[in-house]
């Protein structure tokens, strides 16, 4: 858990506390199966008092092991998330049930940082933009050595028309 003491910024209407630190993935409750992070997670940003609300603005980044969607090679790349969240004092009227709240002078910023990093991860990743992937016929990695397999597929609905071309 990552907790920040905001006692000093709550005293001033526009008080700001700068955040710049590194954290272990376990501190953000991120497991190896959720996101295989290499090393530490970097957090840079600030918490600002904007009246009744504390505003968290942060950039969360980490080096992540990934698996290419085309050739299935493992590679590493940077994952970066921008986090912008509001924290309301506990017991504030009209606050939604899923809103972030804080008690006394401590704000737990773990969940928005965790969510930001997990949601920034793309569904499909490529080791390189022009990755050729694996041959669907022989299974060879076409980035390493090209194969001569026939990978042209014919729409089965049009297969009957092929005999007229002969």
Helices, strands, pairings?
Elements: E1 3-5, H1 7-10, E2 16-23, E3 37-49, E4 54-67, E5 74-89, E6 100-102, E7 106-108, H2 110-119, H3 162-165
Structure notes:
- A hairpin with a 4-residue loop joins strand 3 and strand 4.
- The protein is mainly beta.
- The protein has a five-stranded mixed sheet. Strands 1-7 form a two-stranded antiparallel ribbon.
- The chain is elongated.
Summarize the structure.
This is DUF177 domain-containing protein. This protein is mainly β and 166 residues long.
Fraction of residues in H or I helices? 10-25%
Average predicted confidence as pLDDT? 89
Global morphology: elongated
The number of strands is 7
Strand order of the largest sheet: 2-3-4-5-6
Give the radius of gyration. Answer: 25 Å
Q: Which segments are poorly predicted (pLDDT under 50) over 5 or more consecutive residues?
A: none
- H/E element sequence: EHEEEEEEHH
Q: Please tally the helical runs, counting DSSP H or I stretches of 4 or more residues.
A: 3
Total domains, how many?
2
Strand content: 35-45%
- Structure classification: mainly beta
Outline the biggest β-sheet.
5 strands, mixed
End-to-end gap: 70 Å
Protein name: DUF177 domain-containing protein
InterPro entries: YceD (IPR003772)
